TrEMBL record:
InterPro entries reported for this sequence: 4pyrrol_synth_GluAld_NH2Trfase, Aminotrans_3, Aminotrans_3_PPA_site, PyrdxlP-dep_Trfase, PyrdxlP-dep_Trfase_major, PyrdxlP-dep_Trfase_small
Family under the similarity heading: Belongs to the class-III pyridoxal-phosphate-dependent aminotransferase family. HemL subfamily.
Biochemical pathway: Porphyrin-containing compound metabolism; protoporphyrin-IX biosynthesis; 5-aminolevulinate from L-glutamyl-tRNA(Glu): step 2/2
A single GO molecular function term of this UniProt record: pyridoxal phosphate binding
Gene Ontology CC terms: cytoplasm
Catalyzed reactions: (S)-4-amino-5-oxopentanoate = 5-aminolevulinate
Cofactor(s) in the UniProt record: pyridoxal 5'-phosphate
Gene Ontology annotations of biological process type: protoporphyrinogen IX biosynthetic process
Organism: Nocardioides lianchengensis
The encoding gene: hemL
Protein name, as recorded: Glutamate-1-semialdehyde 2,1-aminomutase
Enzyme Commission number: 5.4.3.8
Keywords: Cytoplasm, Isomerase, Porphyrin biosynthesis, Pyridoxal phosphate
Amino acid sequence: MSAATRPTPASEALFTRARAVTPGGVNSPVRAFNAVGGTPRFIRSAAGAWLTDVDGHEYVDLICSWGPMLLGHAHPEVQAAVQAAVARGTSYGTPTEPEVELAEEIVDRAPVDRVRFVSSGTEATMSAIRLARGFTGRDVVVKFAGCYHGHVDALLASAGSGLATFAVPGTPGVPASSTELTLVLPYNDRAAVERVFAEHGDRIACLVTEAAPGNMGVVPPEPGFNRFLAETCARHGALFVSDEVMTGFRASRQGQWGLDGAVEGWRPDLVTFGKVMGGGFPAAAFGGRADVMGRLAPDGPVYQAGTLSGNPIATTAGLTTLRLATDEVYAHIGAAGETIKEAATEALSAAGVPHVVQASGTMFSVFLTDGPVRDFADASRTSAPAYAAFFHAMLDAGVYLPPSAYEAWFLSSAHDDRAVQTVVDALPGAARAAAA
Ligand code: PLP
């Protein structure tokens, strides 16, 4: 189907109104189509694997709200639980039973002894870093280029002029003083990690990393890399903070840790969570070792709080989602992903488009560059014009991909044969568009 056959006047009218009252017309930049051009589709409703826009067009959803919708949209059991919770009131500002149950579920699956709820992944990493600094009495934070941890000032940092030099702000509005205690290293680079710890080890409070980066496209940790990071931190008295906001309860039942730490026998000191554990509501968390979490207020001196933290609707949605996220769910998502990965490889190869498909557990990305992609510099070689053409051809054929070349493609247990076949059928035309 060509673009002309899918006119979008209602989305265009809403986008015009949106831009008059909201910067860029969107409430999070990646929702805009700046990287691919055109008008974002305004979505009216969603069910299962499908989105319906305000012009009545349907799309197979490969964004899944940027990760949370593990069970697909409007799952009947999640909806029923949420509706029952809403009927009991929406926020009390007191402890509630769903918070306890969700915390128990997370402690049961993930390598944490205690967990504290917040409302966004940004808050989770910001709070984890404060706690790591408070616990160790040190200030320096190490992160990797291409890893995104939310819009935390200290983590919106680009590498300085050389390895082991302190970072510069990655955006206007972040003072140099906010990033001057942040060190940014290339991902998957053990030698860089060793050098930085040799030089600054006694000042490093924590190293924070995406457990398997998904924000530069999916760049899996090389075998043993996370374990190496955990051991290096331990040797220098720094905390290893594993950001599982995207991978948690998504890459596998136990997140990325289920694919490496649980198998290799190590645990991070602190872990951040978000997305899936909120079941489509604003909920996130950080957790970790009992002695570290014990430093948090009210037990300890490190302050952290939130009016809507552990909100009963959000925790009910998250708890219901996690209870339904069985091994079968992950097996289904994995199998659907295999079919799409194979079809993408075949279509792009047939069209002669350089590409590499990378995965970590059930998360995957298609990079339009020769592989492998092992760090941000490699990911940056992706062809932006080719991706824009590919994206629009897919959209036109009824598949909503992330409007950026540097994102994971997300699936859900609701991606059934019809949805997967729609994606498979769209790929050859999109690959030819990318080649043009
Ligand atoms: N950490 C990771 C790994 C993420 O992918 C994200 C968001 O995409 C965040 C943190 C920030 O989460 P939020 O957007 O809920 O603030």
